[in-house]
Design goal:
With about 250 residues, the protein is an alpha+beta fold. The protein has nine helices and ten strands. Helix 5 packs antiparallel against helix 6, helix 6 (about 180-200) packs antiparallel against helix 7 (about 205-220) and helix 7 (about 205-220) crosses helix 8 (about 220-230). It starts with a strand and ends with a strand.
Length: about 250
């Protein structure tokens, strides 16, 4: 397990939900505070989740006036849970505060490989079945639920952030694909850049759909190879995502 990274709305929702059902918490307490993996240590005011190796996004839910780096020594992020209100909000503190903490790991240890573990998790979050997933690669029209599933998978493997390809991660993946000569690698990256610049949509889910569709239409063979390459995910991507309050 690793310290919780609140890098998705569904995690805020899960914390708000379990705060009213978990017997391990003292029921007389109305407000609960737990350490997360969030920190800006070493890069002031640029917060990231250490466990997930991702920067905070604009939708991070902070307490009013937070983060404030009081005393110029608050570099660690805790999450506050208000039970009656169902609110889950972040604040920065110095590292000597005595809080409990929240850990996470993936809730699907029986998945056959890293790719399937992520697919299984995103399927649970967005209520997507295996038949829908099998038809996904050739689909030309998706509902919002399926678009969000795409975004969830891309986000989980580090290829998509905010509905855009992460160029460095895509480049590394393309380098690992044997069919890529230096010339084809540059052409592939040019397609990635072109799709990144052209994508549009109402939210991250829409953007992720149009981005992946652009890549599939402009370079179908490369896109297919990238999908296959997901089978080689490393264990540090797999081992997370189930809450445990400690």
């Amino acid at each position: 397990m690793s310290l919780l990274s609140l890098d998705g709305q569904y995690k805020y929702d899960a914390l708000a939900s379990i705060s009213n059902t978990t017997d391990d918490m003292n029921k007389e307490l109305q407000n609960l505070t737990f350490w997360t993996s969030g920190s800006d240590e070493g890069c002031e005011s640029v917060f990231g989740f250490c466990s997930a190796k991702r920067l905070f996004r604009d939708e991070a839910q902070w307490l009013p006036g937070q983060p404030d780096n009081a005393g110029r020594k608050e570099n660690h992020v805790a999450v506050h849970i208000w039970r009656q209100k169902g609110q889950v909000l972040l604040a920065d503190y110095d590292g000597i505060k005595k809080f409990r903490y929240v850990c996470e790991q993936r809730r699907n240890p029986l998945s056959k490989n890293g790719k399937q573990a992520i697919i299984d998790e995103c399927s649970l979050i967005y209520n997507v079945n295996s038949t829908e997933i099998d038809l996904l690669q050739n689909a030309t029209k998706l509902d919002l639920r399926m678009k969000c599933f795409l975004q969830c998978v891309g986000d989980a493997v580090g290829l998509l952030v905010g509905g855009k390809f992460v160029a460095s991660e895509v480049f590394a993946m393309l380098e690992r694909i044997n069919m890529q000569t230096a010339d084809r690698l540059m052409k592939s990256m040019a397609i990635v850049g072109e799709c990144n610049n052209k994508t549009y949509g109402m939210n991250e889910c829409d953007k992720a759909y149009w981005l992946t569709r652009c890549a599939r239409d402009k370079a179908p063979m490369i896109f297919e190879q990238m999908i296959k390459e997901l089978d080689n995910l490393t264990s540090d991507v797999i081992n997370k995502k189930f809450f445990v309050i400690l």
